Each structure stands twice: as C-alpha cells, then as structure tokens.
Amino acid sequence: MKMSQVNQERIIFDELYTRIIEAVCEPKSMREISVEYEIPLNTVYRRVYKLCNCNMLKVYASEIRDGKRCLLYKTKHEQ
User: Fold this and answer.
1) Per-residue pLDDT tens for 30-71?
2) Three-class secondary structure of residue 30 per DSSP
3) Number of Cβ within a 10 Å radius of residue 17
C-alpha cells in the first residue's frame, strides 16, 4: 500500500481532519477555519498542509488581506 493511502486512511478516521475537510467545502483561510471551528491556528496549519500533501485539499485562491497574502483552501474533489 502506498504511503499516501495509509495517510488518507488515518485522516478519514480522525475527527479533527474531518472537521477541517468539512470546513473547506467553500474556500476558507486557515485563520477562518481556526476561528469558526475553535481549533488552534498552529494545529490548523499542520493539518491543512498534510491534507494538501495527501491531495485532499488544494489552494483555491490567493488574496491580500490587511496587507498580507492569504491563501484560501478548498476540498480538491467536488462534493
């Protein structure tokens, strides 16, 4: 079994990953996910990067907010 398949199986059964995946059915920034779902921002960063590496999330858009670049994430597959 490929490593990414193992990671995806672990992710599917992890509540925090599931909440993040549900959160980004519509494009959202990491900060928005953190505030809306009351997940620490550093945890959101780690989990979102891992989801992107497993091809479960993608960068949907890049915006400038308050003078800083902000990436918006979305699920990779349409639901």
Assistant:
1) 999 999 999 999 999 999 999 998 888 999 999 998 898 999
2) helix
3) 20
CATH number of the domain residue 23 falls in: 1.10.10.10
Count of domains in the chain? Answer: 1
The angle that helices 41-53 and 30-37 make with each other, rounded to 10 degrees, is 120
Which domain does 37 fall in, by range? Answer: 3-75
The separation between CA 52 and the C-alpha centre of its own chain, rounded to angstroms, equals 7
Buried b (16+ CB within 10 A) or exposed e, 21-48: bebbeebbbbebbbeeeebeeeebeebb
Residue 33 and residue 20 in contact, taking contact as beta carbons nearer than 8 Å: yes
Beta carbons of 33 and 19 less than 8 angstroms apart: no
